[in-house]
Amino acid sequence: MHLFWQECKMNLKMLLIWAFCVGGLSFGCLCLYHSVADSVGQMSDVFADMGAFSEALGMDKMGIGTLEGYYAVEICILISLGGAMFAAMLGAGILAKEEEGHTCEFLNALPLGRGRIIGEKYAAMFALLAAFHGICVACSLAGFAWMGSMPDVGHFVGYHGAVFLMCLEMGTVCFLLSALQSRKPLGLSIGIAVLFYLLDLFGRVIPALRKLKVLNPFSYSNGADIFSEGKAPDGAWAAGAAVTILALGLAVWVYRRRDLV
Q1: d(Cα 217, Cα 204) in Å, to the nearest integer?
Q2: What is the mean pLDDT of residues 83-110?
Q3: Beta-strand (E) ranges in the chain?
Q4: Where do the domains of the chain lie?
């Protein structure tokens, strides 16, 4: 497991920066709610009646006049998008950096098969994503505790479980891109994360795109949906798990057959 720990160590700085930025902003926004509660409560009904804008952000399902609604509509967007971008960056660089940094020859000269190399690198990505979400959950709970009001346990656990699966799916897709490239596709990976987020927004207001929502990882990690309905859209979890498994299988198949230079 030396390679696993080496990857965790090399990505520790990026993990801490992203986790405490996203988690710290979540904690700060929750703590600021008390000072803006009155004005937010007055605006809640106005935002709920803004048509397509309300539907895109979930304000038609969950008002921001309560602390839980404020978290589901406003802060969950920050956690989902920040987590997706972190996962994309992590997955995009974890394999391709070996060729880009000309360390591939050394790594493959070690008594490690390619299957073990890719397995330990993926396990490291999984562990780093788990640590990221653990810090974000802790910061969010600290913010709720500071405000003296805790969210519904089932909805909170369901949301963060969905976000973790979404980030794992996003990271695995970018892991596949990393297996295909000789240079880290960071720009492409972040672009994919942002594109999926925008497609989720458009899919909530454009009828022609709603049928494709189940294929979008953001569709089952929307805070407003989970906190208001208690579940993600039917089939979305299964589609996300299927894409994750397929992308991982393709990454292993491609990496084991590539002519690495």
Answers
A1: 14
A2: 78
A3: none
A4: 2-31+80-257
